[in-house]
Amino acid sequence: MNPKWQKINPVELIRMSEKTSQAEFAEKLGFNSKDNYRNHMTRFTKRIIGKINEIYGVDITEEIIIYLHHEIRKFKKQNKELRKYLKNLKSSDNDVIDVADIISDM
């Protein structure tokens, strides 16, 4: 998988290559609504993986693993940055940390 595509959900990547809307893609995969499709797409259920394999003949399991690995790394980095920010905020002269200040500074 091309590294720049690691940031895009593999199911959505297939949909974008088909140049269809989520509703049309959901219908093609046999889901009764776009919301049902999105639920399966974000959780990478066996049903959606199986439907893509059945219709397109593509096993996207490896791409899903790469995508999720990228997401975990991204969240770890964000968590590390947030912890560093909170530590710096705590060490300042302020005794009380205001959540609104944290959000506005981000």
Description:
This protein has 6 helices and no strands. By secondary structure, it is mostly helical. It has one domain.
Please tag this protein with its features:
106 residues; mainly alpha; elongated
- Biggest sheet overview: none
Helix/strand-derived class?
Answer: mainly alpha
Domain tally: 1
The rounded distance between the terminal residues' Cα atoms is 32 Å
Shape: elongated
Spans of at least 5 consecutive residues with low confidence: none
Number of strands: 0
Report the order of strands and helices.
HHHHHH
Mean pLDDT rating:
85
Strand content: under 5%
How large is the count of helical segments? 6
The level of helicity is over 70%
Q: SSE layout and pairings?
A:
Layout: H1 10-18, H2 22-29, H3 34-43, H4 46-56, H5 61-90, H6 99-105
Helix pairs in contact: 2-3
In short:
The chain is mostly helical. The chain has 6 helices and no strands.
